[in-house]
Amino acid sequence: MPAENAAVADHLDDDDYPAYTMGRAADVLGTTPAFLRAIGEAELITPLRSEGGHRRYSRRQLRVAARARELVVQGTPVEAACRIVTLEDRLGDALRLNEEMRRKLAEHGLDT
């Protein structure tokens, strides 16, 4: 496979590759560019910028934005929705780390 094709294949599998323009991201999420700007201002997601300065979003960022959108549709203010999503992510990370540590302890016979 030529190097150029390999690079394309890598981008197709990369959840962090900024493949979506703001307009396309808004269409995919069923929202507006203003919503994407608002969650960017709340620092929930930080889109990358193209050489021309346009916002570009990854699939991972779209999943985060979709969760925030769900909360906003349910009546949660944007700022609060962003905070909730951030805390949910932190909790998920902490639970995964806790489970990993428990497994390591169990492997060494140190579980309680």
TrEMBL record:
Transmembrane segments: none
Residue span(s) of domain HTH merR-type: 19-87
Entries under InterPro entries matching the protein: DNA-bd_dom_put_sf (IPR009061), MerR-type_HTH_dom (IPR000551)
Listed Pfam families: MerR_1
Protein name, as recorded: MerR family transcriptional regulator
